[in-house]
Each structure stands twice: as structure tokens, then as C-alpha cells.
């Protein structure tokens, strides 16, 4: 427990026997619960995770989001949830920088930005760097939020996480969380974090198929969310008796205010 806040860590893992023990071993002692979700490993990932003191669960459906959802469902009512990769590319000892703004009520979600921090040379592939930049630019265009990264090392208030109703089961998990946070007006910020070369081969950036699949899914989530948001806005405009074809784009917050004023 940190400053009277119960902290839980979720680590999705797939064939990370060489790294998972190191990751768990460097998690701060004030963390109350460590949940490793094995995503179909064929090695000793689960065995090593348990030996290191984590609670190890199995999620046979391959997918980062599927593993995260299984981890969330198993949590024991923490105050803050931290997501951390199991490949030792993040620095678990920097976790305090992510949870402290939430503890101090300065934010409800904190993203560890590898762009603002220091990434070891070669840790982020060119396609990862470009994909992050493009996704962040699109989120700024559609929702007016300024992110620099889709970094997986992040912390979020548990009640906020529940309210987001996360559903993506693979590559779109991180961007879905950031989009939904923007749509719902969740207080968020980024903090710089370090990033190093992972242990072992990446399941995403390490293969052409992984790169294409991840990139396509992230773009799909962004454009689908933007389309659904515009659809909801148009419905609100119609309900408020406003002609959307002659009215400048409105945020959902402004539309709700218009609707309220009309009823009065």
C-alpha cells in the first residue's frame, strides 16, 4: 500500500520465462497485488511468475487486451491499477511516478511516455515510433487531446478503469483506453519513463505480420471511435432540434449544455 492506496499490477505475458522474474523482482515493495496473465505460453512463464510471488492466471485466447481483461476481472478491489509489460523493457522501479499523481488527485490516468523519457537506442523500432506519432496526431485531431505515446506502462484509478468499459481484446487496447478517457473527460497526464531493449523477440514489432496487424487495428479503433462519436453527436443535435448540417462541430459536453438549455 502506498499513502493509504491499494496498488495492483497487471502483467500480460507470453513466453517471457527469461524476463518475468526480473520484472516482478523490481516492482516496488508497496505494491499490494501482482497478477501475471499468461496468454498461452509454451515455456515456464507461469511457474517462474508464481515462484517470484505473483498470482499467475491463464488466458488461452491470444491477445494483449484479452489478457488485460482477465487480469482486471481477478483484481481484489484496488484503488489504482498499473499495467506493465513482462518483457523487461519498462523500468518497474519508476512506478511511483505513475501512481503518485493519482494518489494526489492530480489525475485519474497517467501514461508513461517513452517519447518524453529516454528510450535506449533500438528499443523502439521505426515502425513503432511512427505508429505512435500517427495515432497521437489522430487523437489530437478528433478529440483535442495531446498524447505523445501509447506506452503500455500506465496507471489508472480502478473506479475510472471500470467506468471505461474496456472491450478490445488485442492490439487496440492501449489506444482504446486513451480514446475513451478523452471522450469521458478523464483527467490524464503523461510522465517521462525510460525504455530499454526487451528480452527476447517482440510478438508485435518482431514480425511483419505483427506490425501490419497492430497498425491496422489501432487505426481501426481510432476511426471507428471517431465515427461512433460523430454519430452520437448528430443524434444529440437532432434531439436538441439543431440542424447539424449548418452547425459547427460541437463537443459532447457543449451539446449536452445546448440540450439542457433547450429543455429549460
Lay out the secondary structure.
Elements: E1 7-13, H1 20-25, E2 33-38, H2 45-51, E3 55-58, H3 64-73, E4 80-83, H4 95-103, E5 109-113, H5 126-143, E6 154-157, H6 158-164, H7 173-183, E7 188-192, H8 208-239, H9 252-263
Parallel strand pairs: 1-2, 1-4, 2-3, 5-7
Antiparallel strand pairs: 4-6, 5-6
Helix pairs in contact: 5-8, 7-8, 8-9
Describe the structure.
- By secondary structure, this protein is α/β, with parallel strands linked by helices.
- It has one domain (7-200): Spore Coat Polysaccharide Biosynthesis Protein SpsA, Chain A (Alpha-Beta Complex), CATH 3.90.550.
- 42% of the residues lie in helices and 13% in strands.
- It has nine helices and seven strands, in the order βαβαβαβαβαβααβαα.
- A seven-stranded mixed β-sheet has the order 3-2-1-4-6-5-7, with helices on both faces.
- The protein starts with 6 loop residues before the first strand and ends with a helix.
- The model is unreliable at 245-264 (pLDDT under 50).
Question: How much strand?
Answer: 5-15%
- What's the helical proportion of residues? 40-55%
* SSE succession: EHEHEHEHEHEHHEHH
CATH fourth-tier homologous superfamily: Spore Coat Polysaccharide Biosynthesis Protein SpsA, Chain A
What quaternary form is this?
A: single chain
Number of strand segments: 7
CATH topology: Spore Coat Polysaccharide Biosynthesis Protein SpsA, Chain A
- Spans of at least 5 consecutive residues whose pLDDT stays below 50 are 245-264
Q: Give the overall shape, derived from the CA principal axes.
A: globular
In CATH terms, what is the architecture? Alpha-Beta Complex
Rg of Cα set: 19 Å
Q: Whole-number average pLDDT?
A: 89
CATH class: Alpha Beta
Query: How many helical stretches?
Result: 9
Strand order, biggest sheet? 3-2-1-4-6-5-7
Q: How far apart are the termini?
A: 48 Å
- Look at the helices and sheets and give the structural class: alpha/beta
Question: Main sheet?
Answer: 7 strands, mixed
Please tell me the total number of domains.
1
Amino acid at each position: 500500500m502506498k499513502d493509504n492506496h491499494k496498488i495492483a499490477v497487471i502483467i500480460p505475458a507470453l513466453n517471457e520465462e527469461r524476463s518475468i522474474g526480473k520484472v516482478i523482482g523490481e516492482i516496488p515493495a508497496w505494491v499490494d497485488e501482482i497478477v501475471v496473465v499468461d496468454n498461452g505460453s509454451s515455456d515456464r512463464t507461469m511457474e517462474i511468475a508464481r515462484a517470484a510471488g505473483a498470482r499467475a492466471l491463464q488466458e488461452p485466447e491470444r491477445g494483449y487486451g484479452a489478457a488485460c481483461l482477465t487480469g482486471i476481472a481477478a483484481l481484489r478491489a484496488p484503488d489504482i491499477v498499473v499495467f506493465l509489460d513482462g518483457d523487461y523493457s519498462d523500468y518497474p522501479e519508476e512506478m511511483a511516478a505513475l501512481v503518485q499523481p493519482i494518489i494526489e488527485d492530480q489525475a485519474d490516468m497517467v501514461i508513461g511516455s517513452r517519447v518524453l523519457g529516454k528510450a535506449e537506442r533500438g528499443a523502439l523500432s521505426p515502425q513503432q515510433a511512427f505508429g505512435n506519432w500517427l495515432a497521437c496526431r489522430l487523437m489530437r485531431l478528433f478529440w483535442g487531446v495531446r498524447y505523445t505515446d501509447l506506452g503500455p506502462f500506465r496507471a489508472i484509478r480502478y473506479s475510472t478503469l471500470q467506468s471505461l468499459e474496456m472491450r478490445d481484446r488485442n492490439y487496440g487496447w492501449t489506444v482504446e483506453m486513451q480514446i475513451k478517457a478523452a471522450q469521458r473527460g478523464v483527467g490524464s497526464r503523461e510522465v517521462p519513463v525510460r525504455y530499454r531493449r526487451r528480452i527476447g523477440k517482440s510478438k508485435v514489432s518482431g514480425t511483419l505480420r505483427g506490425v501490419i496487424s497492430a497498425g491496422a487495428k489501432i487505426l481501426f479503433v481510432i476511426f471507428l471511435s471517431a465515427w461512433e462519436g460523430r454519430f452520437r453527436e448528430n443524434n444529440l443535435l437532432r434531439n436538441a432540434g439543431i440542424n447539424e448540417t449548418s452547425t459547427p462541430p460541437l463537443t459532447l459536453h457543449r451539446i449536452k449544455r445546448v440540450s439542457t438549455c433547450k429543455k429549460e
